[in-house]
Amino acid sequence: MADQISQEQRPRLALRRPRLDPWSVGAVIIAALVLLPILSVIWIAFTPEENVWPHLVATTLPRYLANTGGLMAGVALLSAAVGGGAAWLVSMYRFPFSRWLDWLLLLPLAIPAYVGAYALVDFLEYAGPVQTGLRALFGWDNAQDYWFPEIRSRGAAILVLSAALYPYVYLLARTAFREQSGGAYEVARALGAGPLALFWRVGLPLARPAVAAGSAIVMMETVNDFGVVEYFAVQTLTTGIFSVWLEGGNAGGAAQIATVILVMILMLVALEKVSRRNLRFHNPGRSHRPVVPATLTGIGGWVAMLACLLPVLIGCGLPVGVILGHAVDNSEAWTDEGLMRALGNTLTVGGLAAIATVAGGLFLVYAVRLTGRTLPKLLLPVTTIGYAAPGAVLGVGLLLPMAAADNALADGVEHAFGIDIGLLMTGSAFAIVYAFSVRFFAISLGAADAAMGRITPSLPMAARSLGRTARGTLTSVYMPLIRPSVGTALLLVFVDCVKELPATLLLRPFNFNTLATRVYEQASLENLGDAAPAALLVSAVGLVAVGFLARANR
Fold this sequence. Notes:
Elements: H1 2-16, H2 22-46, H3 53-58, H4 61-92, E1 93-94, H5 98-104, H6 113-124, H7 129-138, H8 154-179, H9 182-190, H10 195-224, H11 227-231, H12 237-247, H13 251-275, E2 294-295, H14 298-329, H15 337-371, H16 374-382, H17 385-388, H18 391-417, H19 430-439, H20 441-453, H21 458-465, H22 470-499, H23 502-507, H24 515-524, H25 528-552
Parallel strand pairs: 1-2
Helix pairs in contact: 2-13, 2-15, 2-16, 2-18, 4-8, 4-10, 4-12, 4-14, 6-8, 6-14, 8-10, 8-14, 10-13, 12-13, 13-18, 14-25, 15-19, 15-20, 15-22, 15-24, 18-19, 20-22, 21-22, 22-25, 24-25
């Protein structure tokens, strides 16, 4: 009887056993792959083969920290001033060419900061057109006859980075200003507030969360930069990673510096969130009226126009003009075999990384919405940390464990089968694609989450009730509706992959160049003529993306 009861209960017990959900398992695997490089950096930093941390603290680390902190503060302040001020002008006033400047102010996003650095030095250096023109105009013979500011300096680096990064603040601040209620400004004017008081006492406090968020992104991108600071000889934490690892041969020390960067980034994100924790801004629904821009005429309108045009000229006009001039003067560089190889490599790794990143983001978001399991939900926001992690940090976290796995695999296959398969991951572009996917995973994740959130739940529920599988619902219901968002995410990830420099420099195989690394190599040799075609191609890809961005934000 007992045996009979146990046999009857077996099917019920089997039904109660937890089943492995492939969507949840896949979501956890994707999240683990995204977090692996970050965890690897931390592990290497705390278990170095040779602990050089005391030496770093006593010698170079204070200088790295001071320069990095100074750059972050300077670029954030200047970007907030330029981006916030320009957003206020185009949102609150109408002046000559204001509608054109509304989207022209986004153009510097298309130009990598290191291209701007090369162009600025070429334009302002001793042999450049500015100083040459001054000597010809005033009859000066040499540098002892006049004073000119040092071009390759920390101040110049702040200027270049701010000119390239202020659109992050501008885009967010412009949206915030346009969403504010016109009634608040009418009340302030009735109480006697002038234009300056309206900005300081009404507009800026209400837009503070947007300006703070944009400034936080600017500071993260400043920490990530390598091309500008290396060209201007500013020793930062990122250049320290390259120096300690590639020149000093100490991977553990590089990982320790990378951990310092991670701590700074996490503190920055936490500080930005805490600063906005107690702030609440609500629009009164029925009484909300949009701001009506005032018209600026006369000298005021032209001053506003020049104030908005100047950052566009510095961030986009100057780099494109200088690079285009070199490209025209060196037309034979366009047919160089190395440029064609770099273009092919860029399209390959950028395309593969964009597809892998967007596919992973879609899978993870859909799996969390589909299953509602706790672990994928907890891992979903954590995977966005890759965007805050600089490319050099990801390079350290990927190359060392991947090289060890590659060597172990090659040795095992050779021992078992007598075949030398070589290094499959570090000997190919796989590591670059992996780093790009981790670095820009947050873009695809945000796009997928926002797009799926706009779809009413009744549609997928109806599809499931009619017998559609989870995969069928994704392909037949979600994908047709979110295709524009997916396309935008693919474009944005691809453009960021094309411009990425630090991770590519660390992870590329021997004799493997992308457009970004070719620009860096040729410009480092002071050969801007051969670097110009690659720089123009990188900028052209960025301009296409900015065009789509401007169209989407009309």
